[in-house]
Specification:
ten-stranded mixed β-sheet; six-stranded antiparallel β-barrel; 5 helices
Amino acid sequence: MRRALAALGIGVGLLGSAVVSTPAQAASVVTAPLASDVSTAQQAAAFWLADGGANLRSATPYAVQTVVGAERSSTAVVPDGKPGLVGPSPDVLSKKTKTPTTSGKVFFVGADGQPHWCTGTAVQSPYRNVVATAGHCVYDIERTGSMLGKWVFVPGYSGAKTPEVLYVGKQAFAHYDFGVYGDYDRDVAFVNVYNGVVSSSSGVLTDSGRLGENVGGQGLAYNQPTASSVDVFGYPAGPNPDGTRPYTGQTLERSTGSTFAVRLLDLPADQPVGVDSPFTGEGSLGSSWLYRYSGDARIGYLAGVTISVSDTDGDNRYDTSVSPYFDGEVYGVYSEAAKLWTGSIV
């Protein structure tokens, strides 16, 4: 897709000068800082935790690129290699909840200067510090060369209350074709987060340990066949086209369906995939698609993230969530993110 976009003169340069290329052996990956030093990270944490989490409560679901025209495609999705799996680590809080605490909300400040959120998921990695979400819930597609500001992850989010633990994003990794050319086949990002922090009544931050040690991490699946069943977890909040609002965005929701190839009518993408899901778009961006999900253990393998939703049957209600196909290139982005150690901001 990158060469096709370049030939058409559509290279949009989402990141512009914000792109920092990774080493030559990972030429398809770009990375950019979110909070590259402790002081910046502390400021981000303070922004969200101040006044009892007032900015968290006032945040609204991100409404950028939530809906896309789509239709089922007869063209098969072509893997770029052999199927692969990265094993998950146990959800250590699973006995206390009915849904995976690896899922949560990512909060950030958008191009409008206001606080917003998408859905994110903790993913297994050697340093227990990786979060996956939609690429455009990290990279600001409304402002060339910009990242979404004050980016944090709150796992196990439930209700509009101050979180027990908050994790500040340090560095983001994406595929070159999304970061530079706006290829929505690559609209997925992996973010390294610092150790979690909690705030005392006096506003002093306390270190609460690494993300994966606190909530576990989902595995990763790539080059899997379509028609696989996946469980989708997210925080949908927006309305259907008919105005109905089946979700509040305050609790983690689940839907189950089989994946299939789709053709997008108004976004550049060669082989996106869809899944039958009633989730509305706002709030569900970044929702995890978990392959081989175990309801008992609350773990599975991340095989997609929602980048948009669609009403494919024209009944004015969304019926399909859309994701990039997770192939070996996605695994390559994850692999680079998995190498980065982060540490504490306290």
